[in-house]
Amino acid sequence: xTIHLDHSxxxxxxxxxxxxxxxxxxxxxxxxxxIGPFAPVFVNDGLTLDFIDTDEDFPVYHFCFRVSQxxxxxxxxxxxxxxxxxxxxxxxxxxxxxxxxxxxxxxNEPDGHQWExxxxxxxxxxx
Length: 127
Hints:
With 127 residues, the protein is an alpha/beta fold. The chain has helices spanning 15-26, 69-81, and strands spanning 7-12, 38-44, 47-53, 62-66, 105-108, 114-118.
């Protein structure tokens, strides 16, 4: 049996703003509303991130997106054009660099959630 992650809920203080920003940066479609109380970001044909408004405390989530090199370059350019701060290390300082070891970078959105972008999965390297 093949298992695919279909969707995940992303808690937010402003679901529409959060969904719109992520979708614009990734260059993917989104909607202000959908089934239920969500503002969905259609990451690809198999994954939707459903932003939901909440006043409750919530943890910071980490999502990593693996893309092709042309997509990586385009997304990084949109992040730079938007003036969004990014860093080369998961817990490092904002250095506006792409990581030398894995070719990845991280940024946080207004609710604090951490996004990561890379072209090759370091989580799935042979050991």
